[in-house]
Design brief:
CATH topology of chain B: Hypothetical Protein Aq_1857, Chain: A
Shape of chain B: globular
Strand order of the largest sheet of chain A: 1-7-10-9-8
Largest interface: A-B, 44 and 37 residues
CATH superfamily of the largest domain in chain A: Probable tRNA modification gtpase trme, domain 1
CATH architecture of the largest domain in chain A: 2-Layer Sandwich
Radius of gyration of chain A: 17 Å
Distance between the termini of chain A: 34 Å
Radius of gyration of chain B: 17 Å
Number of strands of chain B: 8
Order of helices and strands of chain B: EHEEEEHEEE
Strand order of the largest sheet of chain B: 4-5-2-3-8
Oligomer: heterodimer
Helix content of chain B: 10-25%
Chain lengths: 233, 126
C-alpha cells in the first residue's frame, strides 16, 4: 500500500436542500440516494458527452464535499453556476484549507464509504483507490508525487484527470463507464452516451498497450514497458 | 477534511442573470386544457419554471399551484394566472405555451425562442 500527494486536488463544499438533485441532473452517475458516510464518483459532461470533470462526492451530513481536479475547476464552475437558477444550492471553496492524497495498491474494505479521524477523511472509491482529504497541518505520510500511482494505475487500467480524463474525449472513451448509471434518466450528455452503449459503438476506448505497439502521440500515460492509450475500437 | 466555514471558505461567485420582464403567450388549445384543469377556480396559478438537468441542461417545470415561496412575476392571460420565477425569467421570455394532442409525447409543450436546441422528448433545452 502506498500513499501519494495529489497536489492538483480541489475541494468545494456544496450546501442546500437541492444539492443532490442538482448534481444528479447534471452528471452521469446516480447520486440522488447518496447518504451520510457514503462517497461516489460522477462525471460532468457536455451535451456531446465530452468530459468537463470527474469528481468524488463525500456526503458529510450537513453538506456534500466535492473533490475535483483543480485545473478543471473553472470549466466545472462555469458549467454548473448558471444552472443553479432558483434551487437551494450554495458552493464554497475549501481548497486552501486542505491537502489531497491518493492511497493505492491495497485491498479496499467497503468501497463507496468514507471515514474521518482527526481531520483526515478517507474516501474508499469504487475505482479501486482511496482519496484522502486532510486538513492543512495534519501529517499524512506520503510520496511527494504521483509517479508510483501512475505506474499502478497503468497496470489497473485506471484513468486519471489531465491524462485520460480530459475535455478531448467522451466519458466512455476515458474509461469512466463505472460512473455512467444505466437507468437514472436524463442528464447532460445522456443521449449520446446511451446511444453509444445501446449500439455498442463508442469510437475509442481506454487500453493498456505495450509501448512499441502504438504511436507515441497516442499514449496518455507512459510507463516503462506498458502505457495507457485511448485507441479506436 | 476542513470543510471551511463562512469565515474561512467564502462562497463561490455564482452567475446570477438579470431578471427579465417576461412576456408569454398561451395557445388556444392550451387555454382550453387549462380551463379543464382549473375549472371555475381562477385562484390557482400555472407556475412555469426551469430546473437544471435533462439531456440539454435545462428542464421545464410546470405546476398548478396556489402559492409559492419563489420570487415570481405574475402574468395574467385571459384570466389565467401564470407565475414565472425571476431566477429563470431570462430563459422564458417570449415563450408560447402550447398543447399537443397525441397519444405519445402529448401534453403541454413550450415553444421557446431562447432555446438553441431541445432534446427529443421536448422536456429539456439548452
Amino acid at each position: 500500500m502506498q500513499t501519494a500527494r495529489y497536489s492538483e486536488g480541489h475541494l468545494s463544499v456544496w450546501r442546500g436542500t437541492d444539492v443532490l438533485t442538482f448534481i444528479d441532473g447534471l452528471s452521469t452517475n446516480r447520486v440522488l440516494d447518496l447518504r451520510k458516510g457514503e462517497c461516489k464518483q460522477t462525471t460532468f459532461t457536455t451535451t456531446t458527452a465530452k468530459v468537463i470533470d470527474r469528481v468524488a462526492l463525500f456526503h458529510m451530513g450537513d453538506f456534500v464535499a466535492c473533490v475535483s481536479h483543480a485545473p478543471f475547476w473553472d470549466a466545472l464552475h462555469a458549467h454548473v453556476s448558471p444552472r443553479i437558477l432558483g434551487q437551494d444550492v450554495s458552493i464554497f471553496d475549501a481548497s486552501a484549507n486542505n491537502e489531497f492524497f491518493v492511497r493505492f495498491g491495497h485491498e479496499q474494505v467497503t468501497p463507496g464509504f468514507h471515514s474521518a479521524e482527526d481531520g483526515v477523511t478517507v474516501g474508499r472509491l469504487e475505482s479501486g483507490y482511496d482519496l484522502i482529504v486532510a486538513s492543512v497541518g495534519k501529517h499524512v505520510e506520503s510520496l511527494e508525487n504521483l509517479d508510483s500511482f501512475h505506474t499502478w494505475r497503468i497496470e489497473q487500467c485506471i484513468p486519471w484527470a489531465g491524462y485520460e480524463i480530459t475535455s478531448k474525449h467522451h466519458a466512455l472513451a476515458c474509461g469512466l463507464s463505472k460512473d455512467i448509471h444505466p437507468s437514472k434518466g436524463c442528464y447532460i450528455g445522456q443521449e449520446v452516451l446511451t446511444r453509444m452503449i445501446s449500439r455498442k459503438k463508442q469510437g475509442r476506448a481506454l487500453s493498456v498497450v505495450a509501448n512499441n505497439e502504438v504511436q507515441p502521440s497516442e499514449i496518455t500515460t507512459k510507463g516503462e514497458a506498458h502505457s495507457l492509450a485511448i485507441l479506436r475500437v | 477534511m476542513d470543510c471551511g466555514t463562512c469565515e474561512t471558505a467564502g462562497p463561490i461567485q455564482v452567475v446570477k442573470p438579470d431578471v427579465v420582464e417576461v412576456s408569454l403567450t398561451i395557445s388556444d388549445k392550451a387555454q382550453a386544457m387549462l380551463a379543464d384543469a382549473f375549472g371555475e377556480d381562477r385562484s390557482m396559478a400555472l407556475l412555469v419554471g426551469v430546473l437544471s438537468g435533462g439531456c440539454s441542461g435545462y428542464m421545464y417545470d410546470l405546476q398548478i399551484i396556489e402559492e409559492t415561496d419563489q420570487s415570481c412575476q405574475e402574468v395574467n392571460i385571459n384570466g389565467f394566472r401564470v407565475l414565472v420565477p425571476n431566477a429563470s425569467s431570462h430563459l422564458l421570455d417570449g415563450i408560447e405555451i402550447d398543447y399537443v394532442d397525441r397519444l405519445m409525447g402529448g401534453g403541454f409543450k413550450i415553444n421557446n425562442p431562447n432555446a438553441d436546441s431541445s432534446c427529443g422528448c421536448g422536456e429539456s433545452f439548452a
